[in-house]
Structures are given as structure tokens and as C-alpha cells.
Design a protein that fits this description.
Elements (H helix, E strand, L loop, with lengths): L10 H9 L5 E4 L7 E4 L8 E8 L16 E7 L5 H11 L5 E6 L2 H16 L4 E6 L17 H13 L4 H13 L1 E9 L16 E4 L10 E4 L3 H13 L8 E8 L5 H12 L7 E8 L8 E10 L1 H8 L17 E2 L16 H16 L1 H11 L4 H14 L9 H15 L2 H21 L2 H16 L9 H12 L4 H14 L16 H4 L5 H13 L2
Parallel strand pairs: 1-13, 3-4, 3-5, 5-6, 10-11
Antiparallel strand pairs: 1-2, 2-4, 7-8, 7-12, 8-9, 10-12
Length: 540
Amino acid sequence: MKFFINNPQQVVDEGIEGLLTDPNLTKLDNFPEVRVVLRKNIDKNKVAVISGGGSGHEPAHAGFVGEGMLTAAVCGDIFASPSVDAVLSAIVATTGEKGCLLIIKNYTGDRLNFGLAAEQARDMGYKVETVIVGDDIALGEDVEQRGLAGTLFVHKAAGYLAEEGKSLAEVTKMAKKVAEQTFSIGLSLEEGQKFQNPESSRLDQSEAELGLGIHGEPGVETISMDNAESLMQKAIQKLKEYLPAEEKEYALMLNNLGSVTPIEMNILLYAFQKSELAERVKLIVGPSQLMTSLNMNGFSISMLAIDEEIKKALTAKATPVSWFIREFGKISAVESPQLPETLPFKASSNSAKEESLQKITKELISLEKELNAIDEKVGDGDAGSTFATGAKKLQELHDQLPFNNDAELLITIGRILARETGGSSGVLLSIMFTRAGNAYKEHQHLGKALNEGLQKMKEFGGAEEGQRTMIDALQPAFTVLAEDGTIEEAAKKAREGANKTKEITNTDFGRSSYLSEKSLKDIPDPGAEAVAKVFEVLTP
């Protein structure tokens, strides 16, 4: 495909700069290391409402920053969660005594990064509440439900109450109420194509997908291509299975997932208007691009059960750029808040540990393309880049690391990964290394410390061994080391664990739970594969 871009590496940064020609918006001055878009004029006597996530969903999330909606948006890389530091910066930059609400779409990376930032902000004395939105009904109620375009209803309702000067408790209560009453489903004819590593379509001309997410994941069901009315009816029928049984009034959001033309969107709206469900719809948002998946040729519909309170919140004035015509303004920046140091310990030398870390980082950097290729088949294609980014930063800071103190070294690695590595893997590994460093102070045993760190990772991340994650390789390897086994034995167990993930095709956790058995069969989990490769390179 052809794109209107300059450099694929600069797409997110330059897209945000273009948005910042809105004279009502600004950014933190350590952009683009931290990508936070915020209102130019912030009233810290009101609750701050912050959301965000991966880029590639424009105009969400930065396009909804403005009076009556978001106070700030935190932007990650394409389909990748923003860093903990970016979220923390947004909180510190916008939050006063009344506190802050974080609106989080239900993806592991977003939950972890926003959740850890919330905890750090609370430690700094800020009042922070979180609301997790899972409006996608495609996967049923037995697994984690993803956050889709219905999240924007939550932005609007929470933003209205915050603008009215309501308390953090009142704003949070409204956000939770709207999140619980919102239901969404997506349907697509073709996947969105990334600016790098374009993929061939998994669908032929006779197929469409129902029940897909916004990160290029396969749909829950492959259906036959049909006319607009038939496809819309299939989406509606799926949605109706989860709507409340009692008669309700609704607000409808008809969202263009990227590349559907305006006339097609109107045809889809016409098809919806002919359905029985249309009689219960009182308000509509769209049809327009609201939360896209790059250039995906598809749409999503979201239904929010409304009452007078919600109706008032939705219809109140709001000024974000995605909702009205604006003048062309100049880009500006405000001072970024100072965050705690990443490297709190004095550098020290230990040749054996320095050599081991050099081997690990070199291996992860060399595996970037290989792991990305695996992740393209079972995820969003950035696993290799995530590991490589962390490895490059560790190489860059090599001479500043405390190699001769195991506890300090582990804690420092954890801090670096939290601040420099996006996505859920970076945060999970940060949690693991941080806890391992603290545990080492108690045990003076590296294997036991790492194993304790892994248990903390499992506690925060929610996954267990056998659920097709990096834990399938880490757990057996760390168990060996905790029991004074050799690195060779640990490497063997890590490889066995990684290979087993090829056969795990049914899980209720993480991104793999969204995919069919056919999509997962014979493909290893990229995180587990990375762990196995690291242990193998450490084997004498």
C-alpha cells in the first residue's frame, strides 16, 4: 500500500505535531520521549480525566482532549501501550487536589502501565482512581472483554462531570456506570496495514470477519461476504445477545475503523435504521472515524443504555478537535514534571556479569525481526521490537550499571525496563526484576530471588504456566535455578517450555485468548521463545 508518510519511525510523532496546530492543545516539552497531549489551559481545581493507549486509533485518544472530555491523552507507539513514565507525567502535569481519573481500555499492556503509574502517583501523594472499560461482546463474558470505541462514551460522561466541578468519587461512579452499560462489536472486510512490514490479507474476496479488535487481531468468526444490510444485521444480532433484556433507550456510536468511505458509512447507518433496534436509539455519534485501526476496512457499533443523567452528560458542550471546526494555531509546549532517577545506584564492575548481560542484549537485538514475525501471526507484531528496545537501552547504560551488587543490578534493570520498554512485556519484566532485587537482599540467592520476582509478575499480570506466555519458559527455568540447578539444565527447561506453547491453542488469558486454535497451532509464544533463546546464549 501507499502512505502519506515521511519516515515510518516518525509517524506517531509527526501525527501528533499536526494535531497540535489546534491552539487549544499543547504537549509536554520532553516530547517525543514522552508523548502527552493536554489542554493548554487546565483548571487544577477540577478532576483531571486522562486516557490513552497505543497510537493507530486516531482520532482516539488525543483527538478527544478538550473542554468537556479529556484533560490529557497519553500516546504510545502504533498498537503499543505508552510507558509508565508517560502516564505518570500526564498525571503529575494535570492533577490538583481534587484528583485524577484514568480511563483504561481492557488490554494487558494498558492495565499494567496505567495501573503502575497510578500506584506511583499515589505514592507521590496524588488522588488517583481508575476505570477499566471492556465493551467488546465478541468473546462472550467468560474471558477478558476488550476496550473498543465505546470507551469514548466514558470519556464524554466523565469529562462532563469533571467540567462541572464534581468530586473524584462522583466522576468515577459515572464513568463506571457508563462503562458497564456499553456494548460494542466490530466487523471488517480487510485488516489495517501497518506502515512497516505490511502483511498479506488473511481474508479472500468472499470473506469478512466478525468480532475483531482494534490491533489487527483476527475476528472471532469468519463470515461470508455479503451486502451492507446483511453484514450490519449480523453485527446487530450478535450485539443483541448481550443487551439488557428490559426495554432501554440507547445512544448509538457508528465508528469507521479506518478506510470505509463516507458514503459506505451512511449506507451502513441506513441499514441500521431499518432494524428493530433502531427504534430504541435516541442519540447517535457518527458515522465517522472515532477509534480506528489504522486503515482497516471495517466498522464497529457501540450501544450505550442511557437515562436522563447519562443523556445530559453526552449532550453537554464539548470542544475537542474531533468534534468541531477549529482555527489553525501554533505548536507550543509546557515544562515536563521531574520524575525520580532511573539509576539511583553507583556504577560498579563485575566482568562475568557484564559479559552475561552483553550476551543477552546482543541476542535480543539480533532476534528483533524473527520475534516480530512470530508475533505478527499471534499478536500485534511488536514483541521483537519491545525486547530489542529494552536491550538497546541496557547497552547504552552499560557503564552506569551496578554490576557488583546483584540486588542493585536487578532493581536498576527493572527501572530501566519500566521507563524505556513499551507494551506489557516490558512492565511485567520490570515487576519481576524489581521484586527479584528486593528478594535478593533477603536470600542472597539469585535463583530464589528470580523465582520470587516471577511470582510477583504472575500476581500482577494474571497469567500462569500453561497459558501461552513467557511464563511457560521462565517458570521451569527459574525453578531449576532456585533449586541450585545449572544454567544448562535451566536452558533445557526453558526450551521445553517454549516449545510446549506451540501446542497450547486454548487459553482464556491475554491476546491468545482472542485467537482461534487454527491461528495458534504450531506457532510458539514470542515471549517464551525470547526467554529460551536468552538461556541458550548463556549456556557455555
